[in-house]
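Lab notebook, bench 4. Still working through the backlog of constructs that have no structural model yet. Next entry is a single chain of 549 residues. Request: give me the structure tokens for it.
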Amino acid sequence: METALKENRRFFPTFAAAGLLAAWTICLILLAAVPPVSRDALTHHLLVPRLYLEHGGMYQIPHIPFSYYPMNLDLLYLVPLALGSDIGAKYVHMAFGLLTAALIGFHLRRRLGLGWGLLGALLFLTLPVVVKLSITVYVDLGLVFFSTAALLALVRWLESGHRPRHLIAAGIWCGLAMGTKPNGMVVFVLTALAAAFMGNRRWPSIKTVGWALAFALAALIVFSPWMVRNLHWNVSPIYPLQLPQWPKVEDQASDEAEPRPVGINHFIYRHLALGESGWRIAAIPLRVFFEGRDDDPRYFDGRLNPYLLIFPLAALWPGRRRDPVRDREIYLLAGFSFCYLMIAFFGTDMRVRYLAPIYGALTILSVYGMARLARGQEEGAAPAWRRLAVGGLVALLLVPNAVYLSGLFQRVRPLDYLGGGVDRDAYLARHLAEYPVLRHANANLAPDARILALYLGNRLYYSRRHTVDAIGIFARAMQAADDADGVCHRLRQAGFTHLMVRHDLFANWVENNCDEACRQRLGEFARHHLKPLHRNGPYELFEMTGCGG
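Model written out:
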């Protein structure tokens, strides 16, 4: 009887983790079952594949600079789009999150056992940022999967006695990461350095360099189709990184955020615009684990969980260890995560999504830290009081993830859509103020109409008429013309027949960029040449009339 009770106590956490994983996955599936409304999906991850489908193949789209990015996942979205389901693209992206959870789970099961493997998968899949990404048509979860797979392939290379096939596999995974998002280039550099420095110390330096070159060659071969494409288009082969001899892509897209003054780096910007002190700026690599908020750049535009910081420190804490291979794995994962975090910190204004390649590594380190805390210095069964203490701490740290999921249900409200209470158009109108105006244009404008959008944020996916979001085109027409007729004529010469304006942001532009003569010319242009067609909130569609040829 006592033995049976011990077995039940041993397997209860395993069953609980498996049940939570299943329930959590069902919640993600429900949350994703609504039309896409996230910004990057509407600006390029769905827009560019849709344009490729309409065109019948890949082609240059100069007014969308993102179309020059590597697009491994975006090309996968062609399949659900061709089948008429942009919601299906969400599940393609979610699949990479589930695959990463499985990869983490299998690795930890091999190292620590089934229960720890399920816990690792649960910790990863419940991260707020992973939840948010799982229900959006982005590419970050693909980057997470390929980066984690590359790191674990390097681990297998170390523990197998440096068999070349594992190193080549790591290079292939890294090449796929590079072809998914530009951040993958940072993954490439760090993993190539790891391949050089984590080899056998008895090797001569020339052999160490050889292994690093073999890894790099495998990665670059996989990534090469995107470099060849951009070379063919006379664009930097590693765009958006710019090489001196390649012309820059003209970015005509407009963001709704106020532009940062030229020459102001992100540290100075946070100090001047956000009022952050030097110590708070210096603490960003720590704050990002505690202070994240969705849709708020001041708080890193996303949420992690403190266990990604707390438990890896426990895994790294000095003490007696008995497994040299595990030690090297821990140092590899920790070194990669730290270096990537620092590069993101110094390279750009911090966003939680920019840290995607380290989610998997930190999750694995977190489980190693939990196991070490539960077992102490022993390798056998964990003492009951340690198991209870660590289990209680883990449960406490998982509470914010559950609260986040509940809040996401309240914001997304998928059951309204799935239950038929809200149809697709009504759902999109609820979340996108510009959608009713775009829908009116789709239904009422001629197929050859061309719309110049001012401050639409380049969210063009739902527009079925040729639309370019470029305040620069309008500004140049205003500067070059002597009167309202000249403004209208120049816009018509550029091929535009209609104007779509977000009034509040356009008013800010006028306030900051127009003198009295410019404002008078703008007023005459609006009175004599713009015919209002449809408005919803700040967004309004105009037809340009009386412009001549």
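Notes after review: The radius of gyration is 26 Å. The domain at 432-544 is CATH 3.40.50.12610 (Rossmann fold). Flag for follow-up if needed.
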